UniProtKB/TrEMBL annotation:
Residues 60-182, 186-319 form the Aminotransferase class V domain. It comes from Brassica rapa subsp. trilocularis. Its cofactor is pyridoxal 5'-phosphate. SUPFAM superfamilies: PLP-dependent transferases (SSF53383). Belongs to the class-V pyridoxal-phosphate-dependent aminotransferase family. NifS/IscS subfamily. Residues 16-40 are annotated as: Disordered. This is Aminotransferase class V domain-containing protein. Pfam families: Aminotran_5.
Amino acid sequence: MASKAIFSTLRRSLTKPHGGAVSRRHHLSTTSAATASEPYPGDEHAIVMKGVRISGRPLYLDMQSTTPLDPRVFDAMNASSIYDYGNPHSRTHLYGWEAENAVEVARIQVAKLIGASPKEIVFLSGATEANNTVVKGVMHFYKDKKRHVITTQTEHKCVLDSCRHLQQEGRPRVRLEPLMNGGGQERGLRSGTLATQQVVGFGVACELAMKEMEYDEKWIKRLQERLLNGVREKLDGVVVNGSLESRYAGNLNLSFAYVEGESLLMGLKEVAVSSGSACTSASLEPSYVLRALGVDEDMAHTSIRFGIGRFTTEEEIDKAVELTVKQVEKLREMSPLYEMVKEGIDIKNIQWSQH
Ligand SMILES: Cc1ncc(COP(=O)(O)O)c(C=O)c1O
């Protein structure tokens, strides 16, 4: 099994204090695709999809939309699919008990990571359901005592819309109700059969995070600095959106002055990045989170979110810098605004007239 081979290599490399841990990243690196032959892979690697021609599989730097699966998590899920196929809620036979056991192990793994009791962990389908359940559930629970919800504009839409929903309710007397009704699983808080393998995978991912988070954080911070310094060495007008100190290093959101964001994204097809949340990426509106952070409309329109992860390599970052710089320079060469700035004209004070 390929994943088994990867896993044993990973295990071996993880036992080494230096270098080895770095080498594990090469297994999942996407650089090789984009650098298979210089300067870009030939036609044999080209991909045409949705009318866009890409010279090879792009570098993956969109970790805030989703991350590649760690092969160790995959192996655990794979084994669980084969052995724990019973329904974890079946109480009458061994298959059910085994699946239930796998779920309970995962519950402990998740709880340990966040310092909670396993009893406090309720498995749901994802963040939208979790945020809806918590925001609405807590407010309904405290309906008689506390009648205000305070949120921030930078929250995800599923939090904001849950709060808006409460606002519309005007808070009449509402019974505390789970969002899903049915078999009463998860102690009545979330009906529906648990997806055992997803739960097992989540548990193993939490256990790995606990062991490796400190190392991952240092690695990711190093790559973030490499990316930012690399881009800034070659380009002016690069602004970091949000605080550079109080931020998760794996999310580097940059604006490139005098460049139209959509054109930049379209021209950067060899790097898989995005301008913001995948949930709102169909809209051409700039990110409402950036606007709430005080980024002005123009700069919010030129933003790109680089997402760095556990398996990202230095080679991928260097390639991303090279491709980004090239594309920004190309777009600026075509920009009359940039030309004016270069000539020393203060474009903020220009009086534009309509014809
Ligand atoms: C911060 C945040 N909250 C909630 C969600 C929604 O998650 P899900 O699709 O799992 O419901 C996302 C999705 O990317 C997110 O980024």
